[in-house]
Amino acid sequence: MAKSGSRQSPGAKSHASKPQPVVAAKSSKPRAQSASLAPVTKTPPQAKEASVKKPLTPRAAEISTGSDCNLDESVPALLQVTVGKNLRAARLAAGLTLRQVAELSGILFQYVSKIENGEKNLTLSTIDNLAKVLRVSVSELMQKNSP
């Protein structure tokens, strides 16, 4: 029996060695392909086009510039811009900074900034939270030409 500090000779085998895994020999026969494999199909071009994000329509661009708007598919964008403008006006009227509104509402100040710029689609609970912080009504934030 060898001492713990001594070396074993290179040819000596240890009784505690791990067994070596058995590797199967490779067959020289080619594998038969499974008949259940379906051929690869390409996505039709019209399906790809549907997933591509489209640029703003002239109407949406008109809304972002503050032009007057009729009710159409761009109402949510108009509402975002309206809430943003009203939020900024209410914040300035209250004498608060973006950071102060963010801290009081528990919202990141960058997010409040994006709201004011009309870049974020808000939930009603977020609008309610901001209205409470600014001591205005939700309807004041959502009305066109408010504060």
General description of the model:
With 147 residues, the protein is mostly helical. It has helices at 45-51, 58-64, 75-94, 98-105, 109-116, 124-134, 138-142. Helix 3 (75-94) packs parallel to helix 6 and helix 4 (98-105) packs across helix 5 (109-116). The longest helix is centred in the middle third of the chain and has 20 residues, at 75-94.
Question: Which descriptors would you attach to this protein?
Answer:
single chain, 147 residues, mainly alpha, 434 Repressor (Amino-terminal Domain), 7 helices, elongated
- In CATH, what is the homologous superfamily of one domain? lambda repressor-like DNA-binding domains
Order of helices and strands: HHHHHHH
Tally of strands: 0
Overall spatial form: elongated
The class by helix and strand makeup works out as mainly alpha
Note the gap between the termini: 93 Å
Unreliable stretches (pLDDT < 50, length at least 5) are 47-51
Helical stretch count?
Answer: 7
Largest sheet: none
Give the CATH level 1 class of one domain.
Answer: Mainly Alpha
Q: Output the CATH topology of one domain.
A: 434 Repressor (Amino-terminal Domain)
**Percent range for β-strand residues:** under 5%
Q: Give the fraction of residues assigned to helices.
A: 40-55%
- Averaged pLDDT, please? 73
What CATH architecture label of one domain applies? Orthogonal Bundle
Radius of gyration from the CA trace?
Answer: 34 Å
